[in-house]
Design brief:
12 helices; mainly alpha
Length: about 240
Amino acid sequence: MANRTWSYFFGLGIIDPVDDIRAGNPPSNPALLETLTKEFLDSNFNVKQLMRTICTSRTYQLSFRPNKWNDDDKINFSHARPRRLSAEQLYDAVTRVTGAKNQFAGLPKGMRAAEVPDGKVSGDDFLTLFGRPKRQSACECERSSSLTLSHAMSLINGTTIGEAVSSPNNKIEKLVESEKDDKKVVEELYYAILSRPPSEEEIKLADFSKAPSRLEGAQDLAWALLNSPAFLFNK
């Protein structure tokens, strides 16, 4: 459990693959795994405390930018590893920043993908494509985090992001209606989607006058930002 929880935050287990625990696949840092395991036992299996220990560690707070000493390190956690958001995280992030309401068959409207209790619940092929497991076993190998041409096409031209961006009365439409300054609209979209302000060059590139309407210009910008690595990856 300590190894599995660690992998959720780092994208890599101390023993990896996470479920391949055997003598022939030893931990990359035995002392670390032993310490986390002991703390988990001593806390009477307190998962929140285990998560707090991991998240407040110096290791978790390291930059994803490597230096000349750890550039080739893949297993020792000397720098953070950018990793793609999981299917549920990505789906929920898209609906959250755009204000679109998702709908899963037989479940309340607006329920987050991370809250769906059954891996077989249908609602959007997006989740299946991006690796949501069917939960037929407890093995982490059921979840996929690969990137292929199908994933790229879904992000660029798929219905999930397309409908979220163009959904009537969503956050983008409300922002364009309430804010008459194009620069402010661009800034708000950058803050909402990438959690940072745009550069002067990015503001110049986001020229709504070239679009058929201000709304379509804002929607196009949101679509582009949702396809950027800064949004798709946890760094």
